[in-house]
Structure to design on (1111 residues):
């Protein structure tokens, strides 16, 4: 699929493996519509023929047909609905998986500008909303297409002019009306998607900052800001209402036209002798049933512009380049333990004017400790991102130096690299689950005893045993029940549990009071004795007890 | 009503034209036929115009209803997030910000279907079948009887099956909200997951959650669609019965063709609004669920008071009834007297019996290990939560001390500037953000506040993105400090304002804080870990927690 393919087509194509299920749903839907149309047509024929008072036996086929159509329509419709929803949900699961797989490659360096409120809106809403593409747009069109084609062919056979009129009005309903209504609603819909995202982001922020805003006495002012956002949203919504109404108007008119012109054509054909009187009612009444079946297409097509915008945003995420390319020819991890060798290391974020990091040469033997200091903005966290393979350096190289030889980290797969190098992040994420699960994710096979040992080394045991539920305590959204220091300790426990030969600490004593920080650092270094450690901090004086094999001061950052 | 009359007229005119052409052999030139055709054209156009008006009006109503609901929802959840009382019991899930955001945007959109489709159809479903049956009765009693017997069956089916799906419907909405929260949680934690090589494993979990959602939804839909099935079955079978009955009576001559056609064309019109009602009913269910969720949050908003100590609770209750006005703060002291806060869900008091006094012109440092309740203590002083024991009083230079819980919160907050650990930043200029608590401050004052915390090099006009993107977290903290300094409040509370700052920035912030006390005459409470920060304090109070658990 080429780059120029519209996003909505590329998203639509994702469902290809589920085509058999979708075809089944279309067939069931076409059968249901066909039954409804057949009921009208066979009733019309039955009444007309009966008025000629023939022997009752000649009506038996029509009577059976009427009854069959009457019973089968509901059953077919039920089957169609279930099949269609099942298929749509499966498509959704696929779509979510694809988006997640992409994000997994991009985070965190490739997703820097995303914020949680907007992420929520973009990914959850857009991805969920895209399920409508199949359920509410493609399926109705295919169903109506099959049912209408068969019906038009039959009417055409009976009265060509009426058939032509019906074909024309149906095509207008399927494509002409959506063209008009979409043109009217397009601007409004686009505004809705954008404003809706702003609204979601603003809501999340407002709630996160609510206490401070209240104390600042600014609650009303911030709500006024949201009020104007809300007004824009409501206005955008009101604009689409005229479009929706026009759709109903035009489809009523075209259904009426099909009946009216069908009637005239039928009467004319009857006079000309080309149409039997008995089928006149069939020719006139069937268009009502077909148009009723096709009337859903107008509202179905209304979904398209919104879906196209969503698809555009989702494919935009899918199409981002990887911040780090996996090596074509990955090398295996050499035997442990490892030291580190860095030469000429520089890094630059995409679009940034200058380098974010310039590292002097570093040689660190296995089991030695490196202290990296420097003020905010000197590239300390950038260095951490490079060492765990979240970001590719713009120049220079990092090598793992083992007893059996060394390897450039760019030649390792990301997963292998992170088995060798573990990062204790500056702002670790705490998942909305239990405490024990939050630690266990570092090594799912860990026993409870191992987890307890890791927590002990991170000085969390006393706190954990003060919790009524202990390790099973749920920590709440983004670790809401944990203080800043406790989050750091949790992250340390994870790092210890992961048991990598190289451990990087990105400002571990941030948010922790001085006495605890000093003790913690000592424990930390004791717990990681024998491992290679890179300690990044701007508070080196707290760690006086440690003996450093090397120190790097990043100074004021690269110039 | 017009819709019903037009439907009858349409059926009558169609039957007339078909009959006269088929039986009387009338051509297009005949006067009677062309009059009927002209009338039919009018009727068909009128139906289309009415359909437009109905949809248009309904959509506009829906937009304004959603707007008012959305703002009430936000107002109420904002006040609830601000009051940090004990969280509700473990079973009850606190309304989470992501959930509220989903509800305020896409969730409420589900109401569109309710207003634009369900309500108008409900009215039509009441009028149209009745009108159709009356008109059928004038033509053919048997057909009218068939329709009259089956039409009432449909609402009965709908109610029977609808009540069975009610609790399933609720479960489905919960599943959607949980899914949204789970997806966000996983995506936000992606860097952490990648560090530990768990990101791919989460894909499986994500798929499992989505699949659970599919299964749960389908279980609901299987039952929900049953009512649509019953409805369609009843409608189409009775149309078939009418057609067959009319056909047989045409054969034996008891009915003429015109009446027969009229009945067959009109009968489906009796079921059409009910069928559409059934279809839109399922579409509107999510809208109703969303509205119910919104109302639940709106109603909880008022009832977010915590338990608190009896004295504080009494003071708060009195404040709610008749708030005491804040006394003259000049020369007043703020006394924290043995304040204890029990942490929800843990057998822990943090802080435990904390006492300190804030005086104008002085910096009071607060230290203590993490988790010892320093931030909770600030919440009590701010009146954001109630102390479980002890109280915070304002002692004016002259007059009796007053419990802060008794104050009108808005009036009390005008006396306090507060810098939380991670200050709030909203999309807008840096100057707008600094002006949050002092909207009328001049540009010069904003510049001065920014330079006093060492942010003089930032352009106040440059814009911040969502979540304060565009500045580092250290700069964000300093914007919070500048904001608090800009507001001329007698009390200044700073919660670790220098965390994450380098020495230079820290020195600037501390100097500004010290100046606020010395020359500005403010009473400053400074929470800090580091000796450098605490060195500017006139005295340092150490806060500690106490475990109350019997657990070993």
């Amino acid at each position: 699929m080429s780059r120029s393919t519209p996003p909505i087509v590329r998203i639509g194509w994702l469902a290809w493996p589920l085509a058999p299920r979708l075809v089944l749903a279309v067939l069931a839907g076409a059968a249901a519509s066909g039954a409804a149309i057949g009921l009208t047509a066979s009733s019309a024929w039955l009444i007309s023929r009966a008025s000629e008072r023939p022997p009752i036996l000649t009506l038996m086929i029509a009577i059976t047909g009427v009854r069959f159509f009457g019973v089968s329509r509901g059953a077919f419709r039920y089957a169609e609905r279930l099949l269609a929803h099942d298929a749509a949900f499966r498509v959704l699961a696929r779509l979510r998986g694809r988006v997640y797989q992409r994000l997994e490659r991009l985070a965190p360096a490739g997703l820097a500008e995303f914020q949680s409120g907007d992420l929520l809106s973009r990914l959850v809403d857009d991805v969920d909303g895209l399920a409508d593409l199949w359920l509410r747009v493609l399926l109705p069109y295919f169903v109506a297409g099959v049912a209408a084609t068969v019906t038009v062919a039959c009417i055409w056979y009976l009265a060509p002019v009426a058939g032509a009129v019906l074909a024309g009005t149906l095509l207008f309903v399927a494509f002409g009306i959506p063209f008009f209504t979409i043109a009217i609603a397009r601007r409004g819909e686009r505004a809705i998607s954008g404003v809706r995202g702003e609204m979601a982001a603003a809501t999340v922020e407002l709630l996160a900052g609510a206490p401070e805003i209240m104390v600042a006495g600014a609650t009303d002012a911030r709500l006024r800001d949201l009020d104007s956002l809300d007004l824009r949203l409501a206005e955008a919504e009101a604009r689409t209402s005229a479009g929706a109404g026009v759709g109903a108007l035009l489809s009523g008119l075209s259904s009426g036209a099909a009946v009216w012109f069908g009637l005239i054509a039928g009467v004319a054909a009857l006079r000309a002798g080309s149409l039997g009187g008995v089928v006149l009612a069939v020719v006139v009444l069937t268009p009502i049933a077909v148009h009723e079946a096709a009337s859903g297409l107008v509202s179905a097509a209304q979904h398209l512009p919104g879906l196209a915008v969503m698809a555009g945003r989702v494919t935009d995420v899918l199409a981002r380049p990887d911040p780090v390319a996996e090596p074509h020819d990955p090398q295996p991890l050499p035997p442990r333990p490892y030291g580190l060798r860095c030469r000429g290391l520089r890094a630059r974020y995409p679009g940034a004017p200058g380098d974010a990091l310039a590292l002097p040469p570093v040689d660190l033997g296995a089991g030695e400790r490196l202290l990296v200091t420097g003020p905010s903005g000197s590239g300390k966290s950038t260095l951490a991102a490079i060492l765990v393979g979240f970001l590719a350096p713009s120049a220079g190289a990092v090598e793992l130096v083992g007893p059996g030889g060394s390897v450039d980290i760019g030649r390792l797969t990301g997963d292998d690299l992170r088995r060798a190098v573990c990062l204790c992040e500056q702002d670790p994420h705490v998942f909305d689950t239990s405490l024990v699960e939050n630690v266990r994710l570092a090594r799912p096979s860990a026993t409870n005893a191992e987890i307890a040992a890791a927590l002990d080394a991170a000085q969390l045991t006393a706190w954990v045993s003060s919790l009524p539920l202990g390790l099973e305590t749920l920590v709440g959204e983004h670790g809401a029940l944990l203080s800043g220091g406790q989050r750091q300790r949790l992250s340390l426990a994870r790092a210890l549990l992961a048991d990598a030969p190289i451990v990087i600490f990105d400002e571990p004593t941030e948010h922790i009071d001085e006495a605890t920080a000093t003790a913690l650092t000592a424990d930390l270094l004791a717990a990681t004795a024998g491992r290679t450690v890179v300690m990044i901090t701007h508070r080196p004086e707290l760690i006086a007890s440690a003996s450093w094999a090397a120190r790097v001061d990043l100074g004021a950052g690269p110039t | 009503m017009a819709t019903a009359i037009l439907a009858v007229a349409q059926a009558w005119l169609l039957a007339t034209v078909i009959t006269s052409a088929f039986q009387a052999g009338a051509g297009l030139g005949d006067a009677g036929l062309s009059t009927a055709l002209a009338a039919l054209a009018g009727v068909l156009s009128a139906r289309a115009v009415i359909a437009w008006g109905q949809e248009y009006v309904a959509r506009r109503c829906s937009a304004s209803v959603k707007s008012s609901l959305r703002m009430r929802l936000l107002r109420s959840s904002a006040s609830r997030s601000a009051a940090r009382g004990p969280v509700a019991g473990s079973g009850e899930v606190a309304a989470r910000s992501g959930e509220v955001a989903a509800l305020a945007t896409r969730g409420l959109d589900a109401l569109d279907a309710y207003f634009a489709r369900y309500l108008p159809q409900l009215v039509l479903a009441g009028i149209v079948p009745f009108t159709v049956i009356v008109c059928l009765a004038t033509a053919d009693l048997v057909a009218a009887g068939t329709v009259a017997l089956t039409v009432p069956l449909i609402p009965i089916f709908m109610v029977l099956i609808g009540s069975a799906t009610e609790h399933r419907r609720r479960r489905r909405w919960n599943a959607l909200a949980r899914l949204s929260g789970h997806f966000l949680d996983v995506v936000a934690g992606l860097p952490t997951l990648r560090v530990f090589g768990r990101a791919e494993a989460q894909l499986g979990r994500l798929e499992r959650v989505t699949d659970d959602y599919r299964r749960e939804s389908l279980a609901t839909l299987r039952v929900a669609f049953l009512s649509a099935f019953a409805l369609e079955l009843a409608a189409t079978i009775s149309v078939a019965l009418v057609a067959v009955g009319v056909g047989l009576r045409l054969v034996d001559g008891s009915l003429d063709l015109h009446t027969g056609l009229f009945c067959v064309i009109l009968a489906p019109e009796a079921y059409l609004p009910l069928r559409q009602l059934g279809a839109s009913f399922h579409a509107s269910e999510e809208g109703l669920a969303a509205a119910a969720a919104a109302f639940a949050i709106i109603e909880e908003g008022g009832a977010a008071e915590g338990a608190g100590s009896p004295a504080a609770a009494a003071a708060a209750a009195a404040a709610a009834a008749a708030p005491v006005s804040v006394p003259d703060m000049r020369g007043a002291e703020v006394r924290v007297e043995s304040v204890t806060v029990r942490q929800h869900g843990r057998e822990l008091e943090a802080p435990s019996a904390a006492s300190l006094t804030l005086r104008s012109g002085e910096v009071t440092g607060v230290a203590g290990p993490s988790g010892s309740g320093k931030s909770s203590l600030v919440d009590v002083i701010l009146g954001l939560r109630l102390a479980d024991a002890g109280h915070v009083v304002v002692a004016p230079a002259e007059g009796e001390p007053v419990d802060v819980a008794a104050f009108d919160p808005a009036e009390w907050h005008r006396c306090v500037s507060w810098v939380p650990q991670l200050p709030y930043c909203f999309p807008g200029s840096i100057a707008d953000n600094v002006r949050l608590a002092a909207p009328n401050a001049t540009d010069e004052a904003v510049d001065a506040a920014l330079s006093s915390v060492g942010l003089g090099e930032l352009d106040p006009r440059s814009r911040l993105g969502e979540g304060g993107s565009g500045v580092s977290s250290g700069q964000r903290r300093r914007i919070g400090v500048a904001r608090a300094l800009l507001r001329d409040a007698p009390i200044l509370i700073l919660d670790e304002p220098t965390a994450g700052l380098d020495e230079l920035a820290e020195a600037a912030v501390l100097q500004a804080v010290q100046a606020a006390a010395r020359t500005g005459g403010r009473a400053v409470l400074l929470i800090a870990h580091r000796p450098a920060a605490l060195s500017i304090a006139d005295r340092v109070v150490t806060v500690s927690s106490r475990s109350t658990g019997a657990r070993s």
